[in-house]
Amino acid sequence: LNTITNALKTFILRSNERIYQLGQENSAYQGMGTTVSSMLFYQNSLVCAHVGDSRIYRYRHNTLTLLTYDHTLKNKLLQQGRLDEAIAKGIRYKNVLTKAIGAFKTVTPDILISPVEPGDLYIMCSDGLSDYLSDEEMLSTLTLPLSLQELTFQLIQQAKAKGGCDNITVLVTKVSST
User: Fold this and answer.
1) DSSP for residue 144
2) Which of 65, 102, 160, 173 is the most buried (most CB within 10 A)?
3) pTM (2 d.p.)
4) Are 52 and 97 in contact (CB under 8 A)?
């Protein structure tokens, strides 16, 4: 697992360096950044590397668990105790990223290693989905007897129906055996 973890970190660090360098060389690209959430299954484990506010969820035994942390101003202020959860939903700059690939000279990805079980569903999505569907809404969809393709389509349609106009990227995968 160390080799996989190091490879994911290296890929993210090199991507960050290159995108940041492009911004330094061309003012049109200055300040640009992107998010990354990656999943790699190896033996009985899932290795995730993450920067930004794209998300990875696990659906196991009728429970939806967020595996990643949104690197946003809202979450940073909540974590520091400088913002109340009730007020957080209405703040103007809640989606401002505090970590992004290419936006800063250096970046440290979050790494998670988690055991997998047969039947686990993993959902990787952009904020185009998670900003419009609550965890409860996602959970109710994931309990439906649909194929992975149908689940993905249903989640996207629900986000669009609730006003989602940002890019809505969703990947749903299932662990068949370990």
Assistant:
1) S
2) 102
3) 0.91
4) yes
Residue that the structure tokens 């649909």 belong to? 146
CA 130, 88, 112, 16: dihedral to nearest 10 degrees?
80
CA of 129: how far to CAs of 8, 79, 87, 106, 132, in Å?
25, 23, 22, 28, 6
Q: 25 is written with which tokens?
A: 């060389």
Name the nearest CA neighbour of 109 among 144, 69, 164, 76.
Answer: 69
Both structure tokens of 50:
């993450």
Least confident of 49-53, 56-60, 64-68, 78-82: 78-82
Distance, CA of 174 to CA of 143 (rounded, Å): 13
Beta carbons of 107 and 13 less than 8 angstroms apart:
yes
